[in-house]
Amino acid sequence: MPFTAFRGGTQMVPLPGIAGTDGSLYRFNHPFIYTSLSMESRPYEESAQYLGKPYNTLTQNDVRSALKEKWTNMQQDQYDVSSIDGSTFKRDNIINGRWSTMKTKETPSFVANDISFALPNEPNTQYVITLLVREDGERGNW
């Protein structure tokens, strides 16, 4: 996407699932896509992205089940919890890598893609990249 398509700014936001904490968030807006990058300075075991098991024992079914439970318990009505998929991933230069995807319920619908990871030299900082893409490909306002 061209740089001029981005409109946004850095702000501190509450982290879901952890009372009294904030993370740094940068948001980009585009007619089809909403993107955010957030940082959470907490060990993975205390992170909002934590799924209740040691990272290196998580399976795809664990990730999917934990995310469904987490989103169901959040009492939200924006996302279709039945559409959740996700798993962990590994790379030489990252740790605690996890991805997930789910759809929004409203029309037009969006697919929410979420990637969470930490760097080996910063194990207590969890980076979360969220990409919401409009399914119908039409232009729209946020």
Folded structure, characterized:
The protein is built from one helix and seven strands. Strand 6 and strand 7 form a beta hairpin. It has a seven-stranded antiparallel beta sheet with strand order 1-2-3-7-6-5-4, covered by helices on one side. With 142 residues, the protein is mainly β. Residues 1-7 have low confidence and may be disordered. The chain has one helix at residues 60-73, and strands at 10-14, 22-29, 33-41, 79-91, 94-104, 110-119, 122-134.
Give a short overview.
This protein is mainly β.
Neighbour order of strands in the largest sheet: 1-2-3-7-6-5-4
> What spatial form do the alpha-carbon principal axes imply?
globular
Average residue pLDDT? 77
Beta content comes to: over 45%
Structural class: mainly beta
